[in-house]
Amino acid sequence: MSGSDISEACRSVLDQPSPLGKVKAARKAARDWRCGRLAWAFSMPMPDQPARTGRPPLLPPSRMPKRGRAGSPRARIAMLHALAHIEYVAIDLAFDLVGRFGALFPPAFVDEWMAVGAEEAMHFALIERRLQSYGASYGDLPAHDGLWEAAAATAHDPLARLAVVPMVLEARGLDVTPSLISRFEAAGDLWSTRVMCRIAEDEVGHVAAGVRWFRHLCDQQRFDCTEQWTMLVGRHFRGMVKPPFNDSARERAGLTKAMMAGVAAPCDLQHKSGVA
């Protein structure tokens, strides 16, 4: 043992403000857990907010500039920057989930979400490298903080956190990533296309982890999984879960059409069958 416990390792990620430092801390925390260097203890509380450098500036979603369709380098930089921000916040989301709620689950939960956190750090590093090849870097453009706001709103309840963050917000990436891949492909940006394809495949597993552990808690508490998800999304998610949906990716992640029917916006459901 290194003298640290799981919560201390997770807190070290959340307390690291610089992107490079956060990536390194995430990789170290996941490696220390995998190598048996962390005690099964949760002595340290998670912060209300992760540390930030002030870059990028955070704006309300309504004030975010339009990004275009990847036809120009400037539009591609804007798209990559938005994706980098999602992956950056996803690092904190994974480690906050472990540090905040890990004691309520078996060790397999920590195994899975530590690995997810390390993958999110890898995704961020891949996109940041691509941004740098365009002469840009993370922090150059504004971003919004909707993902972390959802985490803060569900900090009291692991079922609510799983219901909203991986199963709604991160699942949205399954729907939109195929069109992003097509845009980069059409622009001849094959490097970004390969990065997006790798991320799309990994994110199916991340959403599946959310579904799996949500079902675990529902079974433990004898809740109907679909009814509970519908109730929690209605209570904690601001807005509507709007189609079109990438059915094949969602099905692979465990989000069936029957489950989606309970949370989708009340309109004719449109579906996309393709998956990146």
What labels would you give this structure?
276 residues, disordered C terminus, two-stranded parallel sheet, 10 helices, single chain, mainly alpha
Question: How would you characterize the overall build of this protein?
Answer:
It is a single chain. The strands form 2 sheets. A two-stranded parallel sheet has the order 1-2. Helices cover 64% and strands 3% of the residues. The chain has 276 residues and is an all-alpha fold. It has 10 helices and 4 strands, in the order βααβααααααβααβ. The termini are far apart. Residues 267-276 have low confidence and may be disordered. The chain has helices at residues 6-14, 19-34, 73-101, 107-133, 146-153, 158-186, 190-221, 225-236, 247-253, 257-263, and strands at 4-5, 38-39, 245-246, 271-272. It is globular, with a radius of gyration of 18 Å.
Q: What's the end-to-end separation, in Å?
A: 41 Å
In what order do the strands lie side by side in the largest sheet?
1-2
- Tally of contiguous helical segments: 10
| Poorly predicted residue ranges | 267-276
Number of strands: 4
For the sheet with most strands, the description reads: 2 strands, parallel
* CA gyration radius, whole angstroms: 18 Å
Shape: globular
